[in-house]
């Protein structure tokens, strides 16, 4: 984990900023939905959105004596090796690298680090010039206009959850508020797009009761299930199909308004 801070200057009271969350791209899997992935990347570039990477960049399943997940039918013949997969990830992210705020690793990525003693995501982040946080990161964004300052705290975690129910996924997501105090909580891993909020009350310095709205986001993925003539773990485990893509937020520093957008 890393704790990071970035100052973002702005000029007008009406200014707003997009922050997109992209991950679970699983480059190297045969059923990656390339049109959806490219649409999301184009949206980030065209809207000059900042982005946070959520991990599981590559499918990253390589032959190994203890590797039970390897299924040759799931592999994209264009990107068979981890080197080929992460090279493609770099090519996809390079046009938007200057908009990157933080990169996480995921469980697929981390298996390679532990088994083969090389952190491909750390190397990817270094090459892109984006801060590498590990499995989770706390990011404090400070928006500055003259003497005015507005803070947005984001806690991002690749995620850990093995259940199937929607309620269970949301509960796992909102449990993140028990770890750190933040304004926005984001989690990947479960290949779902979802969003919920929670209102917390607090007493300010003038003894007034105030509300704080916390946003919880599940950040999506790009593997399509139930593809004809392709056998994948999605069918074997009878997992339900999910909406593909990513999620983003739009933040107005002057009013602290947050709008959540599916992309």
Architecture overview:
- With 263 residues, the protein is of the alpha/beta class.
- Helices cover 22% and strands 32% of the residues.
- The chain has helices spanning 34-46, 82-93, 107-116, 120-128, 166-174, 233-236, and strands spanning 2-9, 17-22, 50-53, 100-104, 132-134, 136-145, 148-157, 184-187, 193-203, 209-219, 247-252, 257-262.
- The chain has a six-stranded mixed sheet with strand order 1-6-7-8-10-9, covered by helices on one side. It has a six-stranded mixed sheet with strand order 5-4-3-2-11-12, with helices on one face.
- A hairpin with a 4-residue loop joins strand 11 and strand 12.
- Helix 2 (82-93) runs parallel beside helix 4.
- It is globular and about 65 Å long.
- The model has no long low-confidence stretch (mean pLDDT 92).
Q: Which class do the helix and strand fractions yield?
A: alpha/beta
Helix content: 10-25%
Computed over alpha carbons, the radius of gyration is 19 Å
Count every beta strand, where a strand is a DSSP E run of 2 or more residues: 12
* SS strand fraction: 25-35%
Oligomerization status of the protein chains: single chain
Key words describing this protein structure:
alpha/beta, 12 strands, 263 residues, globular, six-stranded mixed beta sheet, 6 helices
Give the topology.
Elements: E1 2-9, E2 17-22, H1 34-46, E3 50-53, H2 82-93, E4 100-104, H3 107-116, H4 120-128, E5 132-134, E6 136-145, E7 148-157, H5 166-174, E8 184-187, E9 193-203, E10 209-219, H6 233-236, E11 247-252, E12 257-262
Parallel strand pairs: 1-6, 2-3, 3-4, 4-5, 7-8, 8-10
Antiparallel strand pairs: 2-11, 6-7, 9-10, 11-12
């Amino acid at each position: 984990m890393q704790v990071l801070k970035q100052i973002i200057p702005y000029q007008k009271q009406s200014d707003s900023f997009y922050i997109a969350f992209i991950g679970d791209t699983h480059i190297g899997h045969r059923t990656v939905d390339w049109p959806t992935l490219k649409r999301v990347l184009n949206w980030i570039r065209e809207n000059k959105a900042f982005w946070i990477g959520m991990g599981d960049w590559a499918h990253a399943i390589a032959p190994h004596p203890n590797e039970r997940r390897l299924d040759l039918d799931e592999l994209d013949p264009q990107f068979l090796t981890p080197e080929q997969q992460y090279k493609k990830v770099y090519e996809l992210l390079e046009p938007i690298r200057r908009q990157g705020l933080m990169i996480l690793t995921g469980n697929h990525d981390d298996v390679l680090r532990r088994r083969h003693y090389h952190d491909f995501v750390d190397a990817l982040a270094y090459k892109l010039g984006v801060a590498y946080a590990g499995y989770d990161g706390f990011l404090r964004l400070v928006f500055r206009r003259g003497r005015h300052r507005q803070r947005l705290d984001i806690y991002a975690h690749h995620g850990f959850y093995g259940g199937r129910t929607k309620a269970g996924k949301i509960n796992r997501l909102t449990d993140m508020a028990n770890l750190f105090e933040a304004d926005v909580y984001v989690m990947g891993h479960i290949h779902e797009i979802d969003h919920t909020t929670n209102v917390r009350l607090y007493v300010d310095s003038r003894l007034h009761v105030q509300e704080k709205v916390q946003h919880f986001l599940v950040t999506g993925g790009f593997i399509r299930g139930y593809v004809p003539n392709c056998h994948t773990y999605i069918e074997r485990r009878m997992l339900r199909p999910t909406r593909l893509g990513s999620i983003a937020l739009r933040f107005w520093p002057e009013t602290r308004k947050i709008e959540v957008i599916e992309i």
